[in-house]
Amino acid sequence: MKNENIAALTEQDICREVLLEKYAKGDERNVDDVRRRVARALAQCEQPADVDRFADAFFKTLDGGFIPGGRINSAAGTDLRATLINCFVQPVGDSVSEVGDDGKPGIYSALLQAAETMRRGGGVGYNFSKIRPKGAAVKGTNSLASGPVSYMRVFDRSCETVESAGARRGAQMGVLDCDHPDVEDFIHAKDEGDLRNFNISVGVSDAFMQAVADDTEWELVHEKKPDPAAFQGFYQRTDGKWVYRKVRAKDLWQQIMASTYDHAEPGVLFMSKINRDNNLSYCEDIESTNPCGEQPLPDYGCCDLGSINLCKFVRDAFGEQPSFDFDGFAANVALSIRMLDNVLDLTVWPLKEQQREAQNKRRVGLGFTGLGDALIMMKLKYNSPEGRGMAASISEAMRDSAYSASVDIAIDKGSFPLFDADKYLAEPHCASRLPDAIKMRIREHGIRNSHLLSIAPTGTISLAFADNASNGIEPPFSWFYTRKKRMQDGSKQEYQVEDHAYRMYRLMGGDINNLPDYFVSALEMSAEDHMLMCTAVGPFVDTAISKTVNVPVDYPFAEFENLYMAAWKAGLKGITTYRPNSVLGSVLSVEPSKETPQDLSGTLTALENEADRRISLQTAPTPALASLKYPHRPKSLGGNPSWTYMVEHAEGDFAVFVGHLDNESQPFECWVNGAHPRGLGAVAKTLSLDMRGQDKAWLTMKLDSLARTFGDHSYSVELGDENIHASSASAIVAKVLRHRIAQMPATETDNNEPTPMLDAMFARKEPKSGTDGTISWSVDINNPQTGDDFVLFVKELTLPNGTRRPYSMWMAGTYPRELDGLCKMLSHDMRVIDPAWIGLKLRKLINYAEPQGDFFARVPGQEKSQSWPSTVAYMARLVIHRYAMLGILTEEGYPVEDMGVMMPEQGDLFSERVEKVAPMAGKPCPECGNHAVIKKDGCEFCTACGHVGACG
């Protein structure tokens, strides 16, 4: 295999786009421009005579693999008065506004401090355990406390309102101790979608974990006394705390596990381990972490982060004897530490308390990125003892080089003010595990920084500065995918995004269709393998590691729970998992209003005081991805049976055929033949797709709706002992189908059966506009061949992500009345959140033909005209065009962006494209609007469009 220098790789388009969008300033056009700015800015903290020398050395360090945190790359050396620090931890006391005896600010004072921090660009972590529990006495007002979760909602709304520097919302971490009386409310606080601007974690102690292991009772306690009227049996312990009640430790643990199994929160922080390992346990207590969890911090502490791209130090990648350049790595680490130390003197501090805390301890957090790719390039499997061994060796080298460099800086600039050699090097602190030679140097010269190491998620900095090297400590998530990015002019651009190691292997002539076994992605290894990597690296990291263990949706709960217990026993400081939900949110309809049916739920508003008024939905469904399955028409070499029903009417009779397969309990199609009214064949065609679905309740809803269609003729059919009548042919077809389905074995709808189609609707019944009305799209249709001359109306609303979506269609004028039934059916289809479904339905109708029904008309959106096989076909094409105008479907009727709810392997659901990442259920994506944002490698990642969002 031909070996190429990594530097020779041409830049991926997406890497350049992310760099220009997020990090480049002014006239900067490439990575080198950004690096020169950052290097020059950080060199200003050196002696004036040394600025040029250090600017050159810092640039070489950046070019050689060091990547400062995103805020440093974005703001250092600019006029932006934003902090260079990504995240902080801030205290919250029990008082409403006053500083408590413990020095913690009151709740609303803390809120003001947090708002200022987020305004300057920093995320914030808090521990809310000081806030008295719900039902505790409040003496000053003779009232009862509302509890920490209620105040968290205030912080949540504030975060939602405050736009931070750089135009992104601030991230927040909320922690509550496992012995707080409101811990159960906290565990379930996000079950119904509350606290959306928080990550939450339970701080658990060794005592609690031991109580879980021993299956004993656990006391829920607080310093504040409960109100006697609200609690029975409370008592005060010898330590002065009040025991509100006791719970079975294992039951509380089960609640935590079930919640994080269902929707990835709360996380678990092993606080005893965090404080035991802390180099500064002699002068601080740690109660919370930054929002991504890799930096446990004291009150007003900050995380000053950067990562080194390990791929830069692999020699003879994919060759006969690949190796890691430990000497070059050590040199890069040394100057990286100096740069991070300088950040503490260069940055703008939102609060003086944060500046004082940083100057007293000078915490920094150097980590690495690209570990997964570096191991691949050295032909080592991530999930092997050899791979873990190499990762441990690299981490140990990083630790030793970082601590040695900090000693060198202390010789030059002095130690951090709170340094005490005996206490700092005492066991079991992380510093106590250093080699004796480094410990001797620390005793002799001191050390500049109290903490030095933190392995953080790298998110977009890996894209912009490291050719999409694998994120942080993680293995690659996928080898390649398509990134669908919205441009400033509103257009969309698709990028092919490749993993760095995969790309290098391909360009060196490797067979990408038969990748070697050391190419192992995140989802191809066990959850235990992910945790074992943390166990291998953890002893050499003095703060913590951000790692996400992605597990499949069918991962057994018992094994999932064992992961957390094993992590505690292994001495980890925390663990984060992500398991895709079957459904991450509830199905939306609309809130009742005067004109709205009373069985709808959710929220409906109209845009007031605007001429362009549309219904606006405030929440949206999050259906399980890849859950809607609509197979093609079954093929049977010997044919298939069907039942025939004769419908009588004044202008002649027609037959309704209901086809099914032997031993099947559900019909799969219907069609009509004979003297049936125009448009009825289109109704049968679209119903056949519904019959092949996997949701009996959906079909029942469709048939019930169709059976209520009214017309101006009389139709009758004998069904069993009854003669059924209806005024429309569509209604009679619906009644025939309901009769036949009821006759088939095991067709009753079980209330416990899954209803994926209904779960995917953003409104089960048609939202009503109220007396103020709403704007709809209308178009004229005239078929001279048949005499059809009518107006088609498409009503539209606005989804929570701002997307305008059609939700109902109607007709007025001269047209076949059976098209009322077709409009009813398609209106239901429009309210499926994934537009792939309505696209499929409309494409099936484009070729629908009627005898002597063809006509010549303009192609929507074009100047030319063409022949259309029927009024129905032209109507379907016009609706597709409207979806295309809204940027939802292409003009061919395929979704512009795959939402992932529809199964893509069925051939005709999507236009020809290659899907690189299987969609997973998740939060709404701010880029494409799909509910497909998962936690990947500690960062938000959209599995539908590839958008990389906030880390933490």
From TrEMBL:
* Cofactors, names only: adenosylcob(III)alamin
The family database entries (InterPro entries) matched by this protein are listed as: RdRp_reductase_class-2, RNR_lg_C, RNR_NrdJ/NrdZ
According to the entry, every stretch annotated as the Ribonucleotide reductase large subunit C-terminal domain falls at 86-578
Q: What is its EC number?
A: 1.17.4.1
User: What function does this protein fulfil?
Assistant: Catalyzes the reduction of ribonucleotides to deoxyribonucleotides. May function to provide a pool of deoxyribonucleotide precursors for DNA repair during oxygen limitation and/or for immediate growth after restoration of oxygen.
**What general EC class does the enzyme of this chain belong to?**
oxidoreductase
Can you cite a GO biological process for this protein? Answer: DNA biosynthetic process
Q: Which family does it belong to?
A: Belongs to the ribonucleoside diphosphate reductase class-2 family.
Instruction: Give the molecular function GO annotations.
Output: cobalamin binding; nucleotide binding; ribonucleoside-diphosphate reductase activity, thioredoxin disulfide as acceptor
Q: What is this protein called?
A: Vitamin B12-dependent ribonucleotide reductase
- Whichever gene encodes this chain, its name is nrdZ
What is the residue range of the signal peptide feature?
none
Q: What keywords were assigned to this record? A: Cobalamin, Cobalt, Disulfide bond, DNA synthesis, Nucleotide-binding, Oxidoreductase
Q: Which NCBIfam families match?
A: NrdJ_Z
Q: Which reaction does it catalyse?
A: a 2'-deoxyribonucleoside 5'-diphosphate + [thioredoxin]-disulfide + H2O = a ribonucleoside 5'-diphosphate + [thioredoxin]-dithiol
Instruction: Give the top-rank taxon of the lineage listed in the UniProt record for this protein.
Output: Bacteria
Q: Name one Pfam family in it.
A: Ribonuc_red_lgC
Would the keyword Nucleotide-binding turn up in this protein's UniProt record?
yes
